[in-house]
Amino acid sequence: MALISKAAGSRGARFSSVPKAKLERWRVWVVLGGLLMLFIGLLGRGLYLQVLNEDFLQDQGDARYRRTLKLEANRGMITDRNGEPLAISTPVQSIWMSPRSVEILPAGQTRPVDWKPANDEEPMPLSLDEIKKIEKQLQLPPNDLLKKLSASRKNSQGKEIKSDFLWVKRHISPTEAKALMAMKIPGVYSQTEYRRYYPAGEVMAHIIGFTDIDGKGQEGFELTREKMLAGKPGSRTVIRDRRGYIVEDVSTIVPPQEGQTLQLSIDRRIQYLAYRELKNAVEAAGAVGGAIVVLDARTGEVLALANAPSYNPNSRAKIDPAHKRNRALTDLYEPGSTMKAITVAMALDAGKVTPQTVIQTGNGTMAIGPNLVKDDHAVGAATVEHIIQKSSNVGAAKMALMMDREAVWNFYKDIGFGEVPHTGFPGEAAGRLRPWKTWRPIEEATMGFGYGMSVSLMQMARSYQLFAGNGEIHPVTFTKLVAPAPGKQVVSAKTAEQVRKMLEMVTLPGGTATRAQVVGYRVGGKTGTAKKLVNGAYSDTARVASFVGLAPISDPRLIVAVMIDEPTFSLRYGGLVAAPIFSSVVAGSLRLLGVPPDAPTTNIFLPSQELEVKEET
């Protein structure tokens, strides 16, 4: 029985091992199948992420860590005609932080000395004491930085998020930035930028203009030549960690293209002189403002242009818009008696009169329809020369009425009236000159002595080129020229010479501009004292006093035009307030340019105040 039992057990064991082996193989296939499915799933996910969704993931990664750094181009320098700097860029430092990357600790809590981030997503702890140190070093208002770091906004999903970037303070000195960075406060970074500096300050403000904090031109030639001066910024693409540190460069650095240098026709020495004299005169006369233009009589280059009041382009403080007005180019006014030289030139060139032609002005009044033209002082029967010297309105009106209306209109157009000067300066005005077909006789007459039309001071200065040389008009330019641009012949050289003689008579005893005389030089010009239009009517008290002249008269090198807006009524005459500015600017400028004297040093003949001839139109 024992043997039978043993045999039976042995047989049973043999038969029971078969299903057990089968069961183990089934489990192997299940595990292998599961792994295979998992591998296929991982492979499919990998293909989806790396092929089908690669662009999205790449963009997300780049948004978090990839940065394209802008390499600022150094803005081009602006210089005067002699290479003296008028606008330069200096390197400065700007401080920035990432509010999203910092965590502001509660009051009284400080960051552990041995603190290290556990991962790239952990924000950097920043204590209130450290924030106060930053504010104190950068002279920020108390709690200003704290508020900005704590500020948040809602994203498209309505979740409160903080900004990735915050300018803490821009354009500080490298010394200040170095002191701040030495504190080693986490999350505070420094970046190099460029700030524009104007050595001449308010003297050149209306010519050069200024840039904003981002280095973009806002006024003057900083605006009009923005593309030339700005250059082209470069770039550097890097990988940054969340603390702002550069980990790797991922592309070739593209170097910036520096801005070009702009050389102007302005002479810095003459500009200083012109601005100083204008500013002093405006203040002394209690005027609203004033402007002066100095042209090279031979080339049309602008040697100086100044306005008062002015402003400091180096200051980031708010600038009064009225002080930014470039009166010489943008403001229009009725030129008054300075137009009489133009009227005489037209009549002479057309053969209507000669310098010795006698014109009857009677008792200084002339009726044209219901209107009356008046002289400030009667001159009776006078030659054309004396009509200019004494500034007779009636005489100028009679000469204007001798001319054909269309011919007069064409003449005005030829010398630039009613046309933009095209100096390249922003906002320059064209003036007002109505079509000749609409002119009435009284308007023809009043335009002969500077009423019924409007011009800018620059246009008036340009028109006197007629008398500076051989009767040509050259384009006006702020750019230094190698050679004069071709001119347009408007009157004959003989006419120009004849008018020059008359302009010199204006500055001699018996004329209205004796205060324009210059020691050692013969000069000439014409005064103007025009009533201002206020609320559509001519004011009884508001005047524009002006003077436009040439020097030296024997061989003109300079054209100087001066305009004073609303001086004190007792100083309203152009011969009293504008002519002395001309005298001072010409005296200094001719010596600076090395122009030899053309008269003895005893050539000044100033009449007494009682005998001084004054005119008002």
UniProtKB/TrEMBL annotation:
The keyword Transmembrane helix applies. The chain crosses the membrane at residues 28-48. Pfam families: PBP_dimer (PF03717), Transpeptidase (PF00905). The active site is at S337. Catalyzes cross-linking of the peptidoglycan cell wall at the division septum. This is Peptidoglycan D,D-transpeptidase FtsI. It comes from Deefgea chitinilytica. Its main location: membrane. It is found in: Cell inner membrane; Membrane. The gene is ftsI.
